[in-house]
């Protein structure tokens, strides 16, 4: 990818033809979290494809191909509009109900400090072939340059995700909450870290 330009586009601007590809990036990046529903990435993409609200996702592109993504919401905006019947159709009655319940309880609803003007960044992910090549930095720089926001939060980052925490700190985010998790040995991490950035003026996009 040497010399390749990274561009960032909002999902709805890319259009419905990109919906499946955006979903596949999402599923691959968080496959470990979805393992209880299915280990088949294609089946997970089938189940989740319908529910992504494309205007909430920003996609990094390298030579026109998806290289990473991040979500952005403000206040009580949602990322997903799940249809239980569609999820059950692909994951089955037992795992489908569990998946639907988890999506609604964990990934829907605003965080405790949400309010208009505060943007929550989430689901930051880079495709394996593009890791370490500036994709996440390009995504975050793009989001931090949006003129309508001055304050950003990143909620519940696993403390084992050192690379992400380092990048966020480098961009000016500061930790404002640490939350211990139960059954940390089983979960594979000890704390969920939340970070915040307030800026007087947005940085210039690169």
Overall description:
- The structure is a single chain.
- With 206 residues, the protein is α+β, with helices and mostly antiparallel strands.
- It is 35% helix and 26% strand.
- It contains nine helices and seven strands; from the N terminus they run βααααββααβαβαβαβ.
- The chain has helices at residues 11-14, 19-29, 31-34, 41-48, 84-91, 93-106, 135-144, 162-170, 184-187, and strands at 6-10, 57-62, 65-74, 118-126, 151-158, 174-180, 191-198.
- The chain has a seven-stranded mixed beta sheet, sandwiched between helices.
- Helix 2 crosses helix 4 (41-48) and helix 4 (41-48) packs antiparallel against helix 5.
- The mean pLDDT is 89.
Cα-based radius of gyration, to the nearest Å = 17 Å
Instruction: Tell me the distance between the termini.
Output: 17 Å
By secondary-structure content and strand pairing, the structural class works out as: alpha+beta
Number of helical regions: 9
Taken in chain order, the helices and strands follow as EHHHHEEHHEHEHEHE
Walk across the major sheet and give the strand order: 1-2-3-4-5-7-6
Q: How much helix is in the residues?
A: 25-40%
How does the overall form come out from the CA principal axes?
Answer: globular
Tell me the total number of β-strands: 7
Beta content comes to 25-35%
Average pLDDT rating: 89
Low-confidence stretches: none
What about the largest sheet?
A: 7 strands, mixed
């Amino acid at each position: 990818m040497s010399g390749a330009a990274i561009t960032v586009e909002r999902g709805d601007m890319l259009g419905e033809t990109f919906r499946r590809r955006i979903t596949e990036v999402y599923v691959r990046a968080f496959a470990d979290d979805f393992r209880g529903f299915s280990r088949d990435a294609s089946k997970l993409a089938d189940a989740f494809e319908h529910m992504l609200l494309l205007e909430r996702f920003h996609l990094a592109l390298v030579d026109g191909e998806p290289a990473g993504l991040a979500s952005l919401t403000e206040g009580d905006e949602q990322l997903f509009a799940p249809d239980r019947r569609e999820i059950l159709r692909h994951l089955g009655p037992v795992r489908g109900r569990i998946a639907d319940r988890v999506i609604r309880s964990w990934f829907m609803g605003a965080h405790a400090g949400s309010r208009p003007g505060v943007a929550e960044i989430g689901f930051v992910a880079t495709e394996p072939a593009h890791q370490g090549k500036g994709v996440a930095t390009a995504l975050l720089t793009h989001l931090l340059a949006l003129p309508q926001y001055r304050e950003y939060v990143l909620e519940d980052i696993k403390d084992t995700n050192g690379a992400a925490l380092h990048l966020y700190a480098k961009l000016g985010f500061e930790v404002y909450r640490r939350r211990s998790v139960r059954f940390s040995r089983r979960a594979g991490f000890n704390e969920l870290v939340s970070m915040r950035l307030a800026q007087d003026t947005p940085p210039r996009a690169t």
